[in-house]
């Protein structure tokens, strides 16, 4: 359960056993069944969630009831609405489970305790956000400048594990295209 | 010159005079003329840049030579390629000046010194990146889910100061539409 989180932290900061024991005391384990929500729109995102097992999607529902998928999440990824989490404002996003999930979660109070007790974790979270920001910038430019077929090719080469675990209509939503366009693109490969 | 930066910091962290003197010793002042580059693609982004006066644009040039604008920058904003800065890898972006600019800049070595001497600045930069990330997520969903006319309306209500300072074809590029489409949208308002 904890090994994946430890390895993830170790990529950016080195923690002593004592420091990781502090981490363990401040996170909690939780399981969600497929289709359960980790976050629902209108709620404040009280928890940052690290996926140990399973697959999630983060999406917005527009005024016409259409879903727009911002992000998928799998093992070794963080999910949550960072902005809602840090500003304690209502989220526009839903996060639900595409598969049964096992996660580790920390709330804001405990994260502040963690920053105080293990200050280098502030650095870890800065790097994590920075990487997420970089991915978001990539995605903005891709969405604006590349045709759908190329975006699909990028998606499957970057996230081959996700393509196999997620229904086609959700991949289409992530790419911002109609499901029929996705079928056409696949056939013409 | 320094007041704007001080006010900006003060929104998130409170600094003593001594701490702000450390900031001042680690930043440098610089002026750029209109059309000069702050960053060119292929270079490592060695400096984080805070705009005191002027207007910039951050953009990518695709294989067909077309420019795609990711971001404009004006007074009180940070510009730079954060990912290139922190990972010391070549940037895909260009940042140039739409107007004459006065900026304050810090390099990575000095930023590390700043984090050591004034640890709460790590928090400031985390919050700054977090807000940038949130804006990027908004933009992804907007680009995917909203028609161009609505995106234009959002842009001018959010950034009225920018619309007046930036040429039309650059606003079109930022919105990911053709300049002709922008004229059409404006006429139909």
Question: How would you characterize this protein structure?
Answer:
Two copies of one chain form a homodimer. Chain A is α+β, with helices and mostly antiparallel strands and 189 residues long. In chain A, the strands form two sheets. The first copy, chain A, has a four-stranded antiparallel beta sheet. The first copy, chain A, has a four-stranded antiparallel beta sheet with strand order 2-7-4-5. In chain A, helix 2 runs antiparallel to helix 4. The first copy, chain A, starts with a helix and ends with a helix. The mean pLDDT of chain A is 92. At the A-B interface, helix 3 and helix 5 of A face helix 3 and helix 5 of B.
Summarize the structure.
The structure is a homodimer of 189-residue chains. With 189 residues, chain A is of the alpha+beta class.
Identify the notable features of this structure and list them briefly.
8 strands, homodimer, alpha+beta, four-stranded antiparallel beta sheet, about 50% helix, about 190 residues
How many beta strands in the DSSP annotation of chain A? 8
* Strand-pairing-aware structural class of chain A: alpha+beta
Oligomer: homodimer
- Strand residues, percent of chain A: 15-25%
* Largest contact between chains: A-B, 30 and 30 residues
Low-pLDDT residue spans of chain A: none
* Cα-to-Cα separation, first versus last residue of chain A: 39 Å
Strand order of the largest sheet of chain A: 1-8-3-6
The topology string of helices and strands of chain A comes to: HHEEEEEEHEEHHHHHH
**Morphology call of chain A:** globular
Mean pLDDT figure of chain A: 92
- What is the percent of helical residues of chain A? 40-55%
Number of helices of chain A: 9
Radius of gyration of chain A: 18 Å
Q: How would you sum up the major sheet of chain A? A: 4 strands, antiparallel
């Amino acid at each position: 359960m904890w090994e994946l989180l430890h390895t993830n932290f170790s990529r950016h900061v080195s923690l002593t056993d004592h420091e990781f024991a502090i981490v363990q005391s401040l996170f909690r384990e939780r399981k969600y069944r497929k289709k359960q929500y980790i976050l629902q729109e209108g709620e404040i995102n009280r928890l940052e969630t690290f996926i140990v097992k399973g697959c999630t999607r983060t999406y917005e529902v527009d005024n016409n009831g259409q879903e727009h998928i911002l992000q998928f999440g799998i093992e070794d990824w963080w999910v949550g609405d960072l902005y809602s989490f840090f500003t304690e404002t209502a989220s526009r996003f839903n996060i639900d489970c595409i598969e049964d999930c096992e996660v580790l979660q920390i709330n804001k109070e405990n994260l502040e305790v963690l920053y105080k007790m293990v200050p280098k974790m502030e650095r870890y979270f800065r790097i994590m956000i920075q990487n997420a920001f970089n991915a978001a910038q990539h995605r903005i430019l891709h969405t604006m400048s590349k045709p759908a077929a190329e975006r699909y090719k990028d998606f499957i080469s970057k996230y081959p594990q996700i393509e196999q675990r997620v229904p086609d209509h959700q991949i289409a939503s992530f790419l911002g295209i109609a499901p029929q366009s996705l079928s056409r693109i696949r056939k013409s490969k």
